[in-house]
Amino acid sequence: MIPLDWKDRAAALLKAYEKEGLMIATAESCTGGLVAGLLTEIAGSSKVVERGFVTYSNEAKTELLGVPAELIAQHGAVSEPVARAMAEGALKHSKADVAVAITGIAGPTGGTATKPVGLVHFALAKKDDKIKVLMRHYGDIGRESVRRSAVSDALMLLEGAITLN
Question: What is the reported pTM?
Answer without folding.
Answer: 0.96
